[in-house]
Amino acid sequence: MAVDDLANLRAFHEGFRWDEIGLLPYKEEGSAPFKAISRQLLFADPRLASELRYFEMAAGGYSTLERHQHMHAVMILRGVGHCLLGDEVRACKAYDLITIPPWTWHQFRATGKEALGFLCMVNAERDKPQLPSDDELAALRKAPRVAAFLDGNL
Ligand code: MN
Fold first, then answer.
1. What is the CATH number of the domain that holds 49?
2. Which terminus has fewer CB within 10 Å in the chain: N or C?
3. How many whole angstroms separate alpha carbon 10 and alpha carbon 16?
4. Range of 103's domain?
5. Could you give phi then psi for residue 78, rounded to 5 degrees?
6. Residue 25 Cα to ligand 1 middle (Å)
7. What is the mean pLDDT of residues 111-122?
8. Distance, CA 64 to ligand 1 centroid (Å)?
């Protein structure tokens, strides 16, 4: 394969779509709780150790509450929302950068009137996310702001 075959430019289009990038389900349906969220795999090349994805949730949508050994590096690209980072709830908006360390509970929610979209960089080889046990969820909910976030009441 010639070097030139690797070169590519995929143009951005209104609605946060890119040339030749398919709109994928966020996760397998029923595998974990989530709502109104899509996934696009922007960069995934065996010569890179990482992948870059674009996730977008409609107003009221949310990602799975989970934790894992691998990290996430996130840049919000559109909208506003809230994210759970460990035992803290933070408001986030376009162009904010969010680091999610290993084994940190995290979840994103589109709490504004519009969609929340973000880039997320991860290791190409990574462990499977863990969901909270009932006890772990109860511990998280002890903080009133976290409980309000989890209930979609922020
Ligand atoms: Mn995650």
1. 2.60.120.10
2. N
3. 12
4. 19-150
5. -150, 150
6. 15
7. 96
8. 8
Alpha carbon 132 to its chain's center? 17
The predicted structure's pLDDT at residue 4: 60
- The helix or strand, by DSSP H or E, that contains position 26, with its residue range, turns out to be none
Q: Catalytic residue at 120?
A: yes
CA distance 105 to 115: 22
Q: In the chain, how many domains are there?
A: 1
Is residue 135 situated within a structural domain? yes
Global pTM reads: 0.93
Is 78 among the domain residues? yes
CB atoms within 10 A of CB 53: 18
Distance in Å, CA 106 to ligand 1 centroid: 7
- Residue 4 located in a structural domain: no
14 falls within a domain? no
**Distance (Å) from CA 135 to ligand 1 centroid:** 20
pLDDT in tens, 41-90: 999 999 999 999 999 999 999 999 999 999 999 999 999 999 999 999 99
Cα–Cα dist 141/58, whole Å = 24
Q: Which of 120, 140, 146, 150 is catalytic?
A: 120
- Cα angle at 95 between 127 and 16, to 5 degrees? 80
Integer Cα distance of 95 and 42 in angstroms: 18
